[in-house]
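Action item from last week, closing it out:
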Amino acid sequence: MTDTHPGAAVDASARAEATRRSYDTVAADYQRLLADQLEAVPLDRALLAAFAEGVATGDGPPAIADLGCGTGRVTERLRRLDAEVFGIDLSPGMVEVARQTYPGLRFEVGSMTALELPDGSLGGVLSWYSTVHMDEDELSSAFAEFARVLAPGGLLLLAFKATAGPECERRRLERAYGHAVELDVYRWAPDRVVRLLAAAGLVESARLVREPDPEEASPQGFVLARRPRAA
């Protein structure tokens, strides 16, 4: 199913609940199937390394929040890069798997659109495909929260499913990781993503689109953005 009108999706609260329920269901198999996925994509690893270095050498606080961290596999990758990092995810099931798998890391249940974090408390925000189930209104809310919790000069690394077609495509996913799910998956034109980030006060530093690997259904987009430093 493809829908080029972001507003056609179901009510945001119902969608969030369906997303939470779906990821609670798939959590164990998600980790089993994807734990080592980054080993096959050196470009993705390089982007994460550049992001971690940018936060570490910046003039803001060193802490990075992996927002929508899932089972913590990318949080752990950042820790291996010596980042001061913790994870937040909407799904209690995913957080439980993360805590069991990576007991040395901190994981919390929370929403990207209503973060319980102080203003300007982070040097970095990672959103690694964690906004793919959000329509435009939710995406704008999440980006506003990212900007709020970043310190001036702080960095965001956003990974998302990209499209070269319309500005947004919505597809319905009813089975994933061996389970029945209820998920809308959004693909965004990079130009549209950058405009939404700019509206939230985040300035593009770099972007990249790579062609899909054999296991991927669409191009993969990446944007590095910064909260401007105080004047």
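Closing note: The chain is about 35% helix and 30% strand.
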